[in-house]
Amino acid sequence: MIDKTFKDTKKTILYTLGVFLILSLGYFLITLVIQINADTAQKNKLLAQQQQLVAVEKTIISNKVNRLATDLLYATDALALGDNGRGDYSDAEDHWLAFANRKMIYDQIRFIDVDGNEVIRVNYDENGATLTDSDDLQNKADRYYFTAGINLAQNQIYVSPLDLNKENDQIEQPIKPMIRLATPYYGARGQLLGLVVLNYTANDLLAQVEKIATASQGQVFMLNADGYWLYNSADPNRAWGFMYDNRLNDSFKTDFPEVWSTIQSQKNGTLTTTAGVFAYTNILTATELELDLHHTLAPGLGDWTMVSFIPATTPEGQLLTRSLAATMLLVLRNNLFAYLLILTLAVFAGVILTINQVKNDEIKYYSEYDAMTGVFNRRTGFEKLKQLYKNIEKNEKLVSVCFIDINGLKDVNDFLGHDAGDELIIAVTRGIQNNIRSNDFLARLGGDEFLIIFEGLDEAEAEAAWQRIVAEYEQINATENRRYLISASHGIETISGSSNEYIDSIINQADEKMYREKKILKKNLKIVRDYVPDDKAGSPE
């Protein structure tokens, strides 16, 4: 009983485990695919947003610098219109003052002669545009923008790097981001007279960059050609590191050297690293800022790069950098309750399947085995014998058939009751099973009749096996205080591979031998011990 309960429990556990694995695996794969598709859609949306953001930044900045170059050409044309050739530039000065007040973005508008001397300088601040007195004009021959601009060809425009304005070699406070644009100025006879220079205060440009950066899911950087921050939405104090001797290592290039190397080589794209995801685009190359067929921008500004960076520590960054293994763990964590439900269903299904399996096993068992003794029943015994008979014909081996009939079963049933009769049947069965080999088998034909099949034994060898069985019965009869004797009659017949006899015929021959033995044994055999008959009892057979 305990063994059966253990087996049934084991079946239930195995069924439960199997159902749980199948259902949970199916559910896991479905939810994983859904999660991956959702993540992919969200990733694509995020990346598209970041790429669009840097593209918009690029367009705005490029258009802005183009407008600056156009303003420079206007200032140059205004100078030419006001130049009477006698050194009187009052008309041009009036135009520049009005222009500076209208634009409000140019810190200075200057005309510098070929020797680097300022000829005209219009300054602009919060109080408006003013003309610098001649005594305050300076020589700028040593400044980089003059050196670069004075050597330009006609119709070329120089755009300086974006940096911080200096006064007397000191960074002006509060800081003033500045871009200087310069173009050569030629007289009416084609002679080079000097440079027209615009000092553009880039605060409004950076303000536009900052405004657009608010739409980013991460951080937005504007970098110069050397990888320094011109704008850093996450930490504005890290901008302009190249302007300070003690901050020359404070740069994007230093923080993300591999990313910077990729940006330098590819110019546009996205890059996923352990730090996060970078969307970037290169802007303000000379080719992008060509105004028309007559004016080109000369090198000097250098490439800028707009970068949108989503750190891996943010929810968006975790999504973009998440591995397949991490996604699988996320799916498991998010569906723990579902797996508990699946486990509950699996337990229920395991119990149902176990019950059905037990019932099916019982049906199969009772269709093949005798319920009382546990040996093969008549149908199964004959099927196995027929199969064995076919193998005998092929392999020319021997099989011996032993037909058995229990002696005195009717007397035991009549005088001692059917429980004692059942006990006798089981005792006979156990005695046989204890003395036959594993490749031999026993079948109950019905009532008190059994059939032993000895594979590979001739009649004499089968008889020897039977005598061992009889010896066990005699041992039980001698040592156990049973109210009956265990006794059985038998008849043995051997089938050989060359035999042409049918199974039924062979069994009948063994049956006849058994009856001849039974007739002899009945003469002196008393099965029920010390029986005192009463008025309900009948005579023993």
What can you see in these coordinates?
- This protein is α+β, with helices and mostly antiparallel strands and 541 residues long.
- It has a domain at 369-522: Alpha-Beta Plaits.
- It is 48% helix and 21% strand.
- The chain contains 14 helices and 19 strands.
- It has helices at residues 2-82, 90-103, 144-150, 203-213, 252-255, 257-266, 315-321, 324-334, 336-368, 378-395, 409-416, 418-433, 459-479, 503-522, and strands at residues 106-113, 118-125, 128-131, 156-159, 163-164, 166-167, 170-171, 177-186, 192-201, 219-223, 229-232, 268-272, 276-283, 296-298, 304-311, 399-406, 441-446, 449-455, 488-495.
- Strand 17 and strand 18 form a beta hairpin.
- The longest helix has 81 residues, at 2-82.
- The protein starts with a helix and ends in a 19-residue tail after the last helix.
Q: What shape does the CA trace take?
A: rod-shaped
In CATH, the topology of the domain at 369-522 is named Alpha-Beta Plaits
Kindly, what is the distance between the CA atoms of the first and last residues, rounded to a whole number of angstroms?
Answer: 38 Å
Strand % is 15-25%
| Name given to the CATH architecture of the domain at 369-522 | 2-Layer Sandwich
Q: State the fourth-level CATH superfamily of the domain at 369-522.
A: Reverse transcriptase/Diguanylate cyclase domain
Low-pLDDT parts are: 534-541
